[in-house]
């Protein structure tokens, strides 16, 4: 079997102190490892990003917004309960991960605690009833009810907590630091972290240089953190995520490629959205798409749309490492990670960034 298909081939050792717990301030002062070619790279700061891009390049952003998806409450017996919302299945009805799962039988009722007791009307309550177990995730389908006549989304803002990743255990970050400054569409339970480095100043410099932006929506799910558990990665089943690639973004991509510009994805979520949309229409021309994708990208993948990438540093053996390896090669990526560790880069969601510049052109347009 090809070494690129072994899960163990994507392992590396990261000193725990390099797992970023709190983002840097200002956002664009994070470090940026610029990968210029298969053999050259350099160390920069994120605010220097514009100088590495060219007029007519297109940055594609994920405008998803993290929802306060973590809720705390108790059963009628007093047993504490913690849930993480995953996906809205119908109005007020959600798939959620629950703790303790074994004690939440079908028919159980949960009364939730407000996030800030002094900032809510004491007469407003949020409850949920367990309807059934979800076999695929091991979670539960919950039917929510409010006492005030307010919508679930209005009440969620008062009861929910922004869910930081599981490896962020001692953070001093504020909830808005786990949102991109261009977040618009609520629905994610994890941030598209490559976008956390952008500031208005960086966008102004990009625009002044003639570098355009476009947007897609991919609501990041908990599957982002789900480990690959098979040694032969080709047997891994990728989780599904909801995406929307709007017509105006498709048109900007067409114009960019026609004018000789390059399409650069801001984050692996944008990669999955664009390549997933291309795959959904294949062999027809790339077009707007709204639906789900379970696109799994690993070395050997034939790129359709994306030519460059801005990304953070990812967990060992993760599907995200495999995606980045498909763009620059697994051995090259591991070598860069080794140097980043020596240089004390900060890893994972609140960490530093990498810019992978295009070395080849691709197009199905």
Written overview of the protein:
The protein is α/β, with parallel strands linked by helices and 365 residues long. Helix content is 18%, strand content 26%. The chain has six helices and 17 strands. The strands form three sheets. A nine-stranded mixed sheet has the order 2-1-17-16-14-3-12-13-15. A six-stranded antiparallel beta barrel has the order 5-6-7-10-9-8. Strand 5 and strand 6 form a beta hairpin. Helix 5 crosses helix 6. The longest helix is centred in the last third of the chain and has 14 residues. The chain is globular. The protein starts with 30 loop residues before the first strand and ends in a 9-residue tail after the last strand. The relative contact order is 0.20. The model has no long low-confidence stretch (mean pLDDT 93).
- N- to C-terminal distance: 33 Å
- Class by SSE composition: alpha/beta
Determine the strand fraction and express it as a percent band.
25-35%
What is the arithmetic mean of pLDDT?
93
Strand order of the largest sheet: 2-1-17-16-14-3-12-13-15
Largest sheet: 9 strands, mixed
What are its keywords?
365 residues, alpha/beta, nine-stranded mixed sheet, six-stranded antiparallel barrel, 18% helix, globular
Short description:
The protein has six helices and 17 strands. The protein has 365 residues and is an alpha/beta fold.
